[in-house]
Amino acid sequence: MTVRITFPKTDTAPKGHVVLTVFEGEELGTAAKKIDKGLDGLAASSIKRDKNFKGKAGQTLSLYAPEKSKIDRVTVLGLGKADALDELKAEEAGGKLFAAVGKSGFKDIILITEKSKALKNELMAAHLANGFKLRSYTFDRYKSKKKDKDSAPELAALKVLSSHPANSKAAYNSLANVTEGAYWARDLVNTAPNDLYPESYAKQIKDELKPLNVDVEILDEKKLEKMGAGAIMAVGKGSERQPRMVIMRWNGATKKKGTKTIGLVGKGVTFDTGGISIKPGAGMDEMKMDMGGSAAVVGTIKALAANKAKVNVVGIVGLAENMPSSNAYRPGDIVTSLSGKTIEVLNTDAEGRLVLADCLTHMQSKYKPDVIVDLATLTGAMMVALAHEYCGTFANTDSLWAELEKASADTGEKLWRMPLDEEWKKEMESTVGDVRNLAKSGRYGGACTAAGFLEHFIEGDVQWAHMDIAGTAWIKSDRPTVPKYGTGFGVRVLHDWITQNY
Ligand code: BES
Ligand code: MN
Ligand code: ZN
Asked: Residue 255 pLDDT more than 90?
């Protein structure tokens, strides 16, 4: 479903499905009152008579207009307490609005906004619209039958009336670019692993980002082999579909002394069977989402480029398929990573850290970033700890954590700080080689020891954060009829972090 969202200058005679907004504990505002007058005050009296409707943020009340009216249906959207409204709350209300009216059978919906105390009307309108867009995402690539003949029309357009339409539109456009980045990340996670594999994924990244003036370089298996990226190559060895490393550069900042370079690294395991240390069969299909970290990275770069952000960012994603075969790497193998450090493989299912190791090394040796954030669906242990709600984030400086925490509060993508500890780094030292991919002590604190492994590949005093998005990259529905979906997690918080701090 693609809903076209516009900000027309006026609409003198709204018809069809009209949405009015109201603040908690207040009467209808001026704009809503004007509409309600033509409805003989039906909206105001419905609000009064409904015992549940309080105007809380995102609460809705729907009614049908009198037959004589050009308006058919009215939905009243609560925005909560007027002095508590902020950008995030407006966005959440916009999302809930879509949930309530997106399938109401009207092709067009018009949203009439009011003056607001705490948040400029023009911004409120933009954020309501963006929340609506975020929620309207669908994925129907694999449905051969697009629509039922006798189903109600699909929503095609949302018109938003605001005090300064041009300003709303400009604000919305930049928000929508971020949403489009998140959409792409969702699409990538949702794509079946027979379609999304390292080579096809790399090509898609190039096709999507080149037109936005992002410099894209694809390293294929021959180049990776030659440069000595033995860790990512080991992971991909068991698959017909050989690894790729994709480097994306967005140089939006004017060259000045002191301009920082930001490095984003993503795990892109397009399917994780576990390899020779094979995973149990039940739920293995879920491992198509094991490229969620890379999806967040490419989605963020798309958003930054679309917004022409004045920042310099390098993204590196490591793409590989972890398969068992006579060619596959095995427990017991000792491989040499790009850094020169040898890795003792004790479990081929702990593959993500190998992929990241080579990407982190390439990032540091070639691009010397001031700060690096990596994202990966790295451990089941992260899900045990924080489920689908929070993304555990390991940061090696308090200042980087403070920046990320702020971006998390701004966007509602929840991060929770996790500890890095010298002991966990030591846990990952090997007796026969340099490092091992499995903690000596076993599975306790698995997300922390995984971070300890990655720390072996962080050089000097570069600022670094590792986000384990195993739980947040996707929604697992407990209803068997509802599919598991990619969330696009990471795009919004990273875009906010980068544009607010660099
Ligand atoms: N991709 C998985 C982690 C994962 C599990 C992500 C569930 C999302 C949902 C990762 O490659 C993995 O298999 N990790 C192992 C590591 C272990 C062998 C040390 C795990 O968490 O079990
Ligand atoms: Mn694995
Ligand atoms: Zn994995």
From this structure: no
The pTM is what? 0.97
**Is there a shared CATH topology between the 4-165 domain and the 177-501 domain?**
no
**In angstroms, what is the span from residue 287 Cα to ligand 3's centroid?**
7
Please check whether the domain covering 4-165 is classified as CATH 3.30.470.20. no
Give me the mean pLDDT over the 33-47 stretch.
96
**Would the pLDDT of 146 be above 70?**
no
Give the contacts of 45 (CB within 8 A, at least 6 positions apart): none
Of 467, 316, 318, 315, the C-alpha closest to 378 is 467
Of the residues 347, 379, 467, which should be mutated to test ligand 1's pocket, given the most ligand atoms within 8 Å of the CB? 379
Please give the positions annotated as active site. 279, 353
Residue 275 contacts residue 437 (beta carbons within 8 Å): no
Of all ligands present, the nearest one to the C-alpha of 273 is 2
Residues 6+ apart with CB under 8 A from 282: none
**483 band by pLDDT with thresholds 50, 70 and 90:** low
Element spanning 47, H or E: helix 42-49
pLDDT of residue 480: 65
CATH number of 177-501: 3.40.630.10
Q: What average pLDDT does the structure give for the chain?
A: 96
- Using a CB cutoff of 5 Å, list residues around ligand 3, an ion: 269, 272, 290, 352
Each residue of 356-383: pLDDT tens digit? 999 999 999 999 999 999 999 999 999 9
| Mutation probe of ligand 1 site: the residue of 349, 440, 443 with most atoms within 8 A of C-beta | 349
Q: Are strands 261-272 and 4-6 parallel, antiparallel or unpaired?
A: unpaired
Picking from 36, 42, 80, 41, the residue whose alpha carbon sits closest to that of residue 60 is: 80
Pocket residues: Cβ below 6 A from ligand 1: 272, 290, 347, 349-352, 377-381, 383, 438, 446, 470
Domain map (residue ranges) of the chain: 4-165, 177-501
Weakest mean pLDDT among 144-158, 396-410, 471-485: 471-485
Determine the distance separating the centroid of ligand 2 and the alpha carbon of 266, expressed in angstroms: 15
